[in-house]
Amino acid sequence: MLPTDPTKKISFTRCIKEGDLVIVYERHDCMKAVKVCQNSAFQNRFGAFKHSDWIGKPFGSMVFSNKGGFVYLLAPTPELWTLVLSHRTQILYIADISFVIMYLELVPGCLVLESGTGSGSLTTSLARAVAPTGHVYTFDFHEQRAASAREDFERTGVSSFVTVGVRDIQGQGFPDEFSGLADSIFLDLPQPWLAIPSAKKMLKQDGILCSFSPCIEQVQRSCESLRLNFTDIRTFEILLRTYEIRQWRADCGQGTGGGSAGSIRHKRKQHLIEGSGEKENPNNSTVMARPNGEARGHTGYLTFARLKCLS
């Protein structure tokens, strides 16, 4: 995700080397995460792509297969990683993630607590937001899931900014060592209200908490708990609507009535074009836009609250 140099600075300009993780881009809805190995090859319908041809090229390069097909080699940013990662749990997508980072007011140097880790989609974006001087401490009660997340953070280059712990935050709360140190807290739990008292102790004054819940009943109960020590409580549902932009072409000289009707329309248009001084475009085209039929609907509710300052 974050290509780094020895000084741990974020860098997308360096060249691809063996062992790097790259996103192989075929089209916007077909991408794969691939680890670069000198003697390996990537196969798809466009042919075979030798990894040895990738080494030394900058991220964003177009590379060709033995059959002349091509793909792009992209740096594994948090946005792309969200689209290709293995789903061990339900994940947050780009619309929700960007909103969370904005409303949690994350900047480099922040300390963030997260529970639970899940597939790590949000965690990678949190890490980039607080890097290079901040840190994300994320917890999951499932040991195998936490181990898989550690491996992913190593692959994507964020392990310097993320620490994964195994802990039942609902039952045990956050570790006492973070008391009063967290700038922000994110909860993705079945019963977030059980973790709110602990979250209150971890936050700095004026710190912000966000809870993600798929059901409105969870939101209602969480808000009841938040009212005791938090203010500015807000709940949002992010619905993203994407559009398909297509160019439609029609030959104005073609008709359906043996060419006569089409020819008349073509001559009339030709006359108008000549009279206006404009040049005729032989391939008349129209740009059309329509909503994408596969747009995602409800994912969950995001509830934000700010810790009350002591009077």
UniProtKB/TrEMBL annotation:
Point out the coiled-coil segments of this chain: none
Q: Does the keyword Transferase apply?
A: yes
**Record's catalysed reaction(s):** adenosine(58) in tRNA + S-adenosyl-L-methionine = N(1)-methyladenosine(58) in tRNA + S-adenosyl-L-homocysteine + H(+)
Q: Name one GO molecular function term.
A: tRNA (adenine(58)-N1)-methyltransferase activity
Q: Pull one GO CC term from this UniProt entry.
A: tRNA (m1A) methyltransferase complex
- Any keyword S-adenosyl-L-methionine? yes
Q: Which top-level group of life is the source organism from?
A: Eukaryota
Protein family according to the UniProt entry: Belongs to the class I-like SAM-binding methyltransferase superfamily. TRM61 family.
Compartment annotation:
Nucleus
CDD domains, alphabetically? AdoMet_MTases
Question: Per its record, how is this protein called by name?
Answer: tRNA (adenine(58)-N(1))-methyltransferase
Annotated S-adenosyl-L-methionine binding lies at 119-122, 140, 168, 188
What sequence ranges are listed for the domain tRNA (adenine(58)-N(1))-methyltransferase catalytic subunit TRM61 C-terminal?
69-306
Instruction: Enumerate the Gene Ontology biological process terms.
Output: tRNA methylation
Quick one: where's region Disordered? Answer: 273-292
**Keywords, in A-Z order:** Methyltransferase, Nucleus, S-adenosyl-L-methionine, Transferase, tRNA processing
Q: What is its EC number?
A: 2.1.1.220
